[in-house]
Model the fold of this input.
Amino acid sequence: MSDCRRQWNREDELPVYLAGPISSGPNQRKSYGMFSSVEGAFDSKTIDFDSYAVGRKGSRTPRSRSRERILDSGDPVEKTPGDAREGSQTNSTGEIDGTGTGAEVQFAEEENLPGKDGRLLIKGGRVVNDDQSFYADVFIEDGLIMQVGENLVAPAGVKVIEANGRMIIPGGIDVNTCLMKPYLDTQPVDDFLQGTKAALAGGTTMIIDHVTPQPEGSLLEAFERWQEAADKKACCDYSLHVDIPKWNETVKDELEMLVQDKGVNSFQVFMAYNDLYQMTDSELYAALSFLKELGAVVLVHAENGDLVAKEQRKILGMGITGPEGHPLSHPEELEAEAVFRAITLGNRVNCPVYITKVMSKSAADTIAQARRKGSVVFGEPITASLATDGSHYWSKNWAKAAAYVTSPPLSPDPTTLDHLHTLLACGDLQVVGSSHCAYSTSQKAIGRDDFTLIPEGVNGVEERMGFVWDKAVAMGKMDENQFVAVTSTNAAKIFNLYPRKGRIAAGSDADIVIWDPDSVKTITAKLQQSAAEYNIFEGLECRGGPALVLSQGQIVYEGGKLQVQQGTGRFIPRKPFPDFAYQRVKFRNQVKNSQGVTRGMYDGPVYEVPSMPKYITPSPSAKTSPTSHQPPPIRNLHQSNFSLSGAQIDDNVPRRSGHRIVAPPGGRSNITSLG
Amino acid sequence: MSYQGKKNIPKITSDRLLIKGGRIVNDDQSFNADIYMEDGLIKQIGDNLIVPGGVKTIEANGKMVIPGGIDIHTRFQKPYRGTTSLDDFAQGTKSALAGGTTMIVDHVFPVPGSSLMEAYDQWKQWADEKACCDYSLHVDITHWDDTVKQEVDHLVKEKGVNSFQVYMAYEDYCQMTNSELYEIFTFLAERGGIAQIHAENGEIISKEQSRMLQIGITGPEGHVLSRPEELEAEAVFRAVTIASQTNCPLYVTRVMSKSAADIISQARKKGNVVFGEPIAASLGTDGTHYWSKNWAKAAYFVTSPPLSPDPTTPDYLNTLLASGDLSVTGSAHCTFSVAQKAIGKDDFTQIPEGVNGVEERMSLIWDKAVTTGKMDENMFVAVTSTNAAKILNLYPRKGRIAVGSDADLVIWDTDAVRTITAKTHQSAAEYNIFEGMELRGAPQVVICQGKIVLEDGNLHVTSGVGRFIPCSPYPDFAYKRIKARKQLAVLRAVPRGMYDGPVSEFSLSRGGTPSASARTSPTKQPVRNLHQSGFSLAGNPAACGPPTPEDLPIRPAGRRIVVPPGGRSNITSLS
Done:
């Protein structure tokens, strides 16, 4: 309160024309700052205060004013009332006080032709990319960003959106959704329509869904089925990952086709799901080698399936059948172990590895360590692991506990999410997915007597961006640029969509979000877009949310209202060999050639082995120098002072081929003298 | 015992011994005292001992007296394709004694598919005939089925074997799958055994091997190229995970690389019961020799996991040994002649694997760790002898100088310098991988079973005097923690009202009976370190962030969920 009073005089100093024109009722006030609470909480109070304290009715309220000033201290250029940058700016400044509830003003000109030929101008916003933030206007036409710059002049008839200095960020990309993943013939309740609606409502303008073929089914057919369904229903752009349920020769052909003709550059392999999708180490090696040749990114579901199966049996044997059996049989070590193995495989094959669903501290640490050693590995925590924890598996409410079931499970350690946010902020983890796969409670109840049958999946596509903001940016762990990187840009880079997606620049797709860092909402299943009956984030308060969402240049979400059109989503094909993942791999390929040592042939005595299989001709290697041996990629080349065998003492004394080892029977010292 | 006959002649010298003026070094402390031994046992320790007349007295002159070394990993007389390794139990134990090691533990390797018992008997027979010092046996589990289970059980209970090695490498030969490892570890944990592991990812190795051969690399350098150290680290990581899942003590044989050692020390920091065994070769030399132009020399270094080509590895391993992150040292002594190695002259995968080291082990560690100031003399005793005795449950009979312990002693000369060469070593091998190395520190006098076997550089050994020392299960060193954890790690289900809402129609099979457990508290997982974990159990969910008031009331059984068709908010309202 004292704060308010202190600011009071400032208010009086303001020119009347600034305070005046668009001021309106208190309901249009927005709440500012980290200390603001729920929208509208102060309404009645402030009105009263106003009317008692000053004569200037409702022009601005002391509270909002003071709050604004706190924020303004950071960037006086933009919003300090006295500083009128330009005409439009003046307008916006005036509006700060008295504008629309959710967010920015939609400052339509009178001949407001909404969305006419998709021309839009976003004025006065702060464009936030992953590398920098700057004030600029953004002009959009035909679903593309045409111009980014200061003081763009809007042609007549163009709809203008006033951003009022708010953040303009590239729309989010959710890299992991399963909107059609069949489970025992049932489908998730959120299909491409529901799912993409939820995505847009959360500020995500593109999803990449997983195609899950049946183990014996064709990859291509499954892909086409998914594409058809998505084309009909999706409301935002989408792309597809394809899961590889089994490794064999037919799959190879299909993969080649998918990469070359269908625009798929990422495939998921499984180390879990014993007897279903799981691959052995040899198969993984073969798969990684093959996919690397194609230039694809390998997504790995990392859990040790053999051990999970054993543990499940043990847990069931102990009479534990409820959802708590799920985390008990999927301990986080098994996740970390598989992550470690996947990274080792990736290093051996020299193939980029992308770990989907990083759920635990130890898995994340393993990834961070591997990156320090130079491995090309990416980690994707999901909304659930970033916003909640696995203690809910012990809930007395079966339906609630079951709603959290996903694999790998949420860690019961409540400090996990904080740790994951920290790693996300420092770049050790790169992208955020949601693994959105919502099942109804009755579907979950398939496993009411046996937790292993509970269909796995949690929601999160809608809450994803909000929680990263709330838990990382609002807490000071992460800056806004990194926020853009992890929610959008990195994903676009890894999957070769950049800079079409994931950046606000001329020529990029007009998938844009105006982000409101101050909005606060309480997550509840009643208000969500998803069709699921339960939201695993139920009751959590989340700061930050989209004020306005543009998808393909169209306003699809504004002021809490969604206006989407089914089927507008386009399939975005992706090319292989994304630079972000493959540039290093290419160089390593060149460096990493093993070569044999040229030696005179050994012609000493050979112990007679009965029926020994003979391989290959002896030492055909042609090169002389053994020096091109490079340490395996995991080893830090800067640290290793491995001096190569060139430094051997005996290298200077090449054995002449005439000079043979003469080994008298039982002779013992001859070899020694040689060495 | 074979020396019974001779006993009458040098009676006094062999039976009763007094070491005067030595400094006794155990793993916990050093002190000056005399030692009196009789009948192969230490009878008295102290100053001014009262001893019978005519006792042979050794003047130690202030030198260190340490417990005889225990080489926990040897493979004497190992059969390989119809031949056996050069050093048999006689030659091998002779080398051991020459280096100050008074007990060895050999690996019984049954051919996959054959009986463990038969192999065990065979090895025991060989050793009883020839060994010059006490010995014990590990048994390798090379395949896994119910018969093996019974044999393992029998070996633990009746035959004095408490440690079993399994392989994660050698695909299609003796490699175990993850599920088998899980079963074996579970079984061993129940029986009080130690799970030893040869940790390398066999599947990837065989892929890499065929790749190497394909690109024309057939020499010994292919061995190390096809077995990069990350595959070792990966397998160690996996083994640690499985062991902690099954709550079984794990022993990693042959730690050859930095990254594998790092994994072990990390796991120990997290509280896992895991022991790492670097061997003489990995502590003393490195893998650059695989690129030697001399095929025979390069082939002599072939062992699995291979020596790391990184020349800083020995130093690093010695550091971890000194800090206690690695626990024991072995030698994996298994020598082949050049002719035998030459079986693989055209294909490195055929080279018989094995290096020497049983004789050099103690000196190497002294030279590389103690004289460099990494390690003190007590730690030296711990890693060369005491820790091994503890793991094998032989402590304090072996591994300590104390009244009642076996009279296996070494008077250690810290100043002696010798140069390792195949010309003077005891082993029958033609080449020594430590050839030319100058080592400080050597045994001056070695006493085995109360008799002097090495004095003034002369070795007096008798084949066949070595006794089999049975190891009992549940060694405290490993199992005390395991037992305590077992009691804590009991899992319980959450008692809930039965879910009786709608169920999708596709349930296929039914598991056990629903929610049978009676106790209220949902408990911790066995694997997580209970000391570190902030997991406050679901019983106190309020502390875990999101408020979950719905956890508190148990739904009365009478109040069922009524779900109207298509109703969406009902479950939500429940919670």
About this structure: Chain B has 17 helices and 18 strands.
